C-alpha cells in the first residue's frame, strides 16, 4: 500500500538541488567500545518495524502530476545504510567535525530509502570519555526536528540491556505501476478539492481560523523585506562545515530563574552573543539585528510517533547590537512574548496547508517559490528541539552528548541546531564551506555568552565546560 507525501514533505524534495541538501542529522557521542557490525545491524533490525519509512523509497508520479508517494523498496539492503569510519590520530573534535561536514555534504540516494547511519571510531575528546560517535542522516521529507527526536528515542533504548525486537506486521506487496500512480494522483486531487469544500461549509470555524491567520500574516509582512546586507547571506556551494558548542541545562535554567525569560530565551541570547562575536570578527557592523527563522512545531501531543513534517515558523530579530548580555536577554524575552501573542506561527501553518489545495501540476513550482522567498528575507535559521531528559543507550552503550545538524538552503550560509538531552544542551552549527570558514568563532561566542550570563548570576567566573 503506497502513501502520498504531504504538501510540506514534498516541498523538501522539490527544493533540493545541487547545492541545497535537504537532510537533517544528529551526531551522538557514546561511552564504551564501538559496536560491531553485527551488534549495530541487530539494533536497527529490532526497531525497523517501528519506522516503516526506513524501508520505503519515494516514487514520483508520471508527468509530475500530484505529489510523490512512499512505496516499499523491493531491493532494500540494510547493509547499504549502515556505514563505518574511523578518525586518524589524534581523533580530536576538529577531526570529527570535519568528517561530519564531509558526510553531510553528500546528498542521499533517491533510489533508496533516504537515510544513513555512520559509526565513527577512534574518537578522543579531552572533556569526555566517548570513544565513538553515531552520525545519522535523514531526509527532511521524512521527518522534521521534533519527530526526529521521537525517532531517535525509538532507535535507541531506555535500558542498557536493550529491549525486545518489535514485531513486523508489514505486508510489502508489489511496487505500483506508473499508470496506478497516475490514477492515484488524480484521485487524491479530487479528494483535496472535496476536503476544501467541506471546510467552507463550517463558516464560523473558517472565519475564526482565518482571522487568526490574517493577524499572523500582517505580522509577517516585515520579513518579506530583505534584511540588511550581511556576509551571512549569499550564494552557497555544495560543501559544508560543522562545529559544536555546548552548555548545561541546569546553568540555562539558573539564568532563567534569576534574570527571567524562558529556557528558549536564554538559549537565543547565547546564540545572539555568538553572532555578535562572529560579525565583529569579520569587521561588520552589528547595528542591525540578525533575522532568524525559528521553526515551530504544530504537532499535537497525540501526534507523537507519527514521523512526518508538521512544522511552521516564526521570525525573530537577534539583537546583536546590544553589548550587555542581560539587556540582550531581556530584549529577546520581550520580543518572543510578543511573537507568542501574535498569530505568526499559525499563519505559517495556514500557508503550508494551502499547498494541499493547489492544482497538482502547479504544486511543485508553488512550493519551491514559497520555500525560496523566506530564504531571501532572513539571515539565518535557528532550530531548538527539546530532546529526552533521560539516558539512552545503543547496544548497551550510554549516549553522553548529542548535537543536531540543520541543512542550508537558498541564500543562508550559517544555521544553528539546538538539541537538549539528559541535562546537556548541544549547539550544532552548519556553515557553507567556502563562505563560513569561521563558524568556530560563532561556537566560541555562544559558550562565552553563556559564561557571561552565569558570571552575572553567580558573581564569580565560570568555566566554559568544553
Helix and strand layout, with pairings?
Blueprint: E1 3-4, H1 7-15, E2 23-30, H2 37-47, E3 56-59, E4 69-72, H3 78-81, E5 82-86, H4 93-104, E6 115-121, E7 132-139, H5 145-155, H6 178-200, H7 203-220, E8 240-248, H8 249-259, H9 263-281, E9 290-297, E10 311-318, H10 325-341, H11 344-354, H12 360-375, E11 380-386, E12 393-394, E13 397-405, E14 414-421, E15 424-432, H13 439-458
Parallel strand pairs: 5-6, 9-11, 11-14
Antiparallel strand pairs: 1-4, 2-7, 2-13, 3-4, 6-7, 8-15, 9-10, 12-13, 14-15
Helix pairs in contact: 1-12, 7-11, 8-9, 8-13, 9-10, 9-13
How do you describe this structure in short?
With 466 residues, the protein is α+β, with helices and mostly antiparallel strands.
Task: Report on the architecture of this protein.
The chain has helices spanning about 5-15, 35-45, 80, 95-105, 145-155, 180-200, 205-220, 250-260, 265-280, 325-340, 345-355, 360-375, 440-460; strands spanning about 5, 25-30, 55-60, 70, 80-85, 115-120, 130-140, 240-250, 290-295, 310-320, 380-385, 395, 395-405, 415-420, 425-430. The chain has about 475 residues and is an alpha+beta fold. It folds into 2 domains: about 5-180, Chloramphenicol acetyltransferase-like domain (Chloramphenicol Acetyltransferase); about 230-390 and about 405-460, 2-Layer Sandwich (Chloramphenicol Acetyltransferase). The strands form 3 sheets. Strands 5-6-7-2-13-12 form a 6-stranded mixed sheet, with helices on both faces. A 6-stranded mixed sheet has the order 8-15-14-11-9-10, with helices on both faces. A hairpin with a 2-residue loop joins strand 14 (about 415-420) and strand 15 (about 425-430). The N and C termini lie far apart (about 50 Å).
Amino acid at each position: 500500500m503506497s502513501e502520498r507525501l504531504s504538501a510540506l514533505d514534498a516541498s523538501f524534495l522539490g527544493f533540493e538541488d545541487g547545492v541545497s541538501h535537504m537532510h537533517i542529522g544528529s551526531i551522538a557521542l557514546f561511552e564504551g567500545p564501538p559496536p560491531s557490525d553485527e551488534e549495530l545491524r541487530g539494533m536497527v533490525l529490532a526497531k525497523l518495524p517501528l519506522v516503516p519509512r526506513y524501508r520505503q523509497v519515494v516514487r514520483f508520479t508520471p508527468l509530475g502530476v500530484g505529489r510523490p508517494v512512499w512505496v516499499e523498496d523491493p531491493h532494500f539492503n540494510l547493509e547499504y545504510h549502515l556505514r563505518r569510519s574511523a578518525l586518524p590520530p589524534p581523533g580530536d573534535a576538529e577531526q570529527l567535525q570535519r568528517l561530519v561536514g564531509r558526510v553531510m555534504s553528500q546528498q542521499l540516494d533517491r533510489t533508496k530509502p533516504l537515510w544513513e547511519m555512520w559509526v565513527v571510531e577512534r574518537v578522543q575528546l579531552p572533556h569526555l570519555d566517548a570513544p565513538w560517535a553515531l552520525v545519522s542522516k535523514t531526509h527532511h521529507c521524512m521527518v522534521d526536528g521534533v519527530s526526529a527526536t521521537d525517532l531517535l528515542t525509538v532507535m535507541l533504548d531506555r535500558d542498557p540491556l536493550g529491549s525486545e525486537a518489535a514485531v513486523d506486521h508489514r505486508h510489502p506487496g508489489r511496487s505500483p505501476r506508473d499508470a496506478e500512480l497516475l490514477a492515484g494522483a488524480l484521485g487524491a486531487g479530487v479528494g483535496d478539492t472535496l476536503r476544501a469544500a467541506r471546510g467552507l461549509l463550517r463558516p464560523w470555524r473558517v472565519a475564526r481560523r482565518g482571522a487568526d491567520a490574517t493577524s499572523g500574516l500582517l505580522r509577517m509582512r516585515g520579513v518579506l523585506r530583505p534584511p540588511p546586507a550581511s556576509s551571512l547571506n549569499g550564494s552557497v556551494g555544495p560543501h559544508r562545515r560543522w562545529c559544536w558548542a555546548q552548555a548545561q541545562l541546569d546553568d540555562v535554567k539558573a539564568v532563567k530563574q534569576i534574570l527571567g525569560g524562558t529556557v528558549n530565551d536564554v538559549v537565543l541570547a547565547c546564540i545572539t552573543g555568538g553572532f555578535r562575536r562572529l560579525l565583529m570578527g569579520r569587521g561588520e557592523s552589528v547595528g542591525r539585528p540578525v533575522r532568524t527563522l525559528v521553526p515551530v512545531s504544530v504537532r499535537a501531543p497525540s501526534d507523537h510517533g507519527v514521523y512526518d513534517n508538521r512544522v511552521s515558523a516564526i521570525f525573530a530579530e537577534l539583537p546583536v547590537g546590544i553589548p550587555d548580555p542581560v539587556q540582550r536577554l531581556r530584549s529577546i524575552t520581550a520580543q518572543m512574548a510578543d511573537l507568542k501573542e501574535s498569530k505568526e506561527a499559525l499563519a505559517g501553518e495556514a500557508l503550508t496547508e494551502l499547498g494541499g489545495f493547489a492544482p497538482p501540476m502547479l504544486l511543485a513550482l508553488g512550493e519551491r517559490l514559497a520555500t525560496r522567498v523566506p530564504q531571501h528575507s532572513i539571515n539565518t535559521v535557528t532550530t531548538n528541539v527539546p530532546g529526552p531528559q533521560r539516558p539512552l543507550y545503543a547496544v548497551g552503550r550510554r549516549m553522553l552528548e548529542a548535537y543536531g545538524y540543520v541543512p542550508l538552503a537558498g541564500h543562508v550560509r550559517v544555521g544553528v541546531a539546538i538539541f537538549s538531552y539528559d541535562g546537556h544542551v548541544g549547539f550544532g552549527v552548519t556553515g557553507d564551506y567556502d563562505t563560513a570558514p569561521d563558524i568556530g568563532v560563532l561556537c566560541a561566542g555562544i559558550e562565552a555568552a553563556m559564561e557571561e550570563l552565569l558570571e552575572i548570576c553567580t558573581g564569580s567566573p565560570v568555566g566554559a565546560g568544553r
